[in-house]
């Protein structure tokens, strides 16, 4: 939005008549309003609100933030710190920790299953934070023999809150090479992010 006037600290000049001070105050208010409405809503005299709300661009709202998790952070300790080649069928787990309020929108499995004898899988699981043993699988990515690359889950809308625990379960078939996982999420603002 173009501003009404260029910002200046030189107005009013000392030579200006005092009877124009009210005009200068109105101009100053307009100049401040022009600039503040680019950062907040509710400052505009045409549509004032209380409270004034900071715009998403200032808060740092981000869609599509990612968390990359190397294979070495999963429970089975691989020999290479960034990939894991299974010498036998192997199931590994990673406790997923994200800030409260973010929304998981997708997760992806980076694997070379070309030499594997059968499918490898990655699951995102959720458990209510209580003493029950019920675990819910939100989605499973299945990578068949001969496939290699980055494989994506369905689109998710899982909001992280304090009542649930999350884990990723990677099953790597013998001779499959597991590189890592990407978790994509949105955040309500910059206070809820990694």
Helix fraction bin: 10-25%
Distance between the termini: 32 Å
Which outline best applies?
elongated
By CATH reckoning, the class of the largest domain would read: Mainly Beta
Number of domains: 2
Strand content: 35-45%
Give the rounded overall mean pLDDT: 86
Number of strands: 12
Structural class: mainly beta
Q: What is the chain-wise order of helices and strands? A: HEEHEEEEEEEEEE
Number of helices: 2
Show unreliable segments: none
Q: Mind telling me the C-alpha Rg?
A: 27 Å
Largest sheet: 6 strands, antiparallel
Can you name the CATH architecture of the largest domain?
Sandwich
CATH-level-4 superfamily name of the largest domain: Galactose-binding domain-like
Q: What would the CATH topology of the largest domain be?
A: Jelly Rolls
Describe this structure as you would to a colleague.
The structure is a single chain. By secondary structure, this protein is mainly beta. The protein folds into 2 domains: 1-59, no CATH class; 60-187, Jelly Rolls (Sandwich), CATH 2.60.120.260. It is built from 2 helices and 12 strands, in the order αββαββββββββββ. It has helices at 21-36, 56-59, and strands spanning 40-41, 53-54, 62-70, 84-85, 90-96, 103-112, 120-128, 136-143, 148-152, 158-159, 164-172, 177-187. Strands 3, 4, 6, 9, 10 and 12 form a 6-stranded antiparallel beta sheet that branches. Strands 5-11-7-8 form a 4-stranded antiparallel beta sheet, with no helix packed on it. Strand 7 (120-128) and strand 8 form a beta hairpin.
């Amino acid at each position: 939005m173009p501003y009404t006037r260029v910002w200046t600290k030189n107005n009013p000049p000392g030579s200006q008549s005092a009877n124009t001070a009210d005009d200068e105050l109105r101009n100053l208010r307009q100049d401040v309003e022009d600039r503040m409405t680019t950062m907040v809503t509710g400052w505009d005299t045409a549509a004032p609100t209380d409270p004034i709300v900071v715009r998403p661009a200032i808060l740092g709202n981000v869609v599509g933030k990612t968390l990359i998790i190397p294979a070495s952070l999963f429970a089975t300790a691989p020999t290479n710190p960034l990939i894991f080649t299974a010498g036998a069928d192997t199931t590994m787990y990673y406790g997923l920790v994200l800030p409260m309020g973010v929304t998981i929108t997708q997760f992806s499995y980076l694997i070379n299953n070309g030499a594997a004898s059968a499918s490898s899988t990655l699951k995102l699981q959720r458990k209510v934070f209580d003493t029950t043993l019920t675990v819910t699988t939100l989605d499973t990515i299945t990578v068949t023999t001969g496939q290699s690359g980055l494989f994506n889950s369905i689109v998710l809308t899982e909001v992280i809150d304090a009542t649930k625990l999350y884990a990723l379960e990677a099953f790597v078939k013998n001779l499959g090479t597991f590189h890592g996982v990407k978790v994509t999420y949105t955040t309500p603002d910059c206070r809820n992010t990694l």
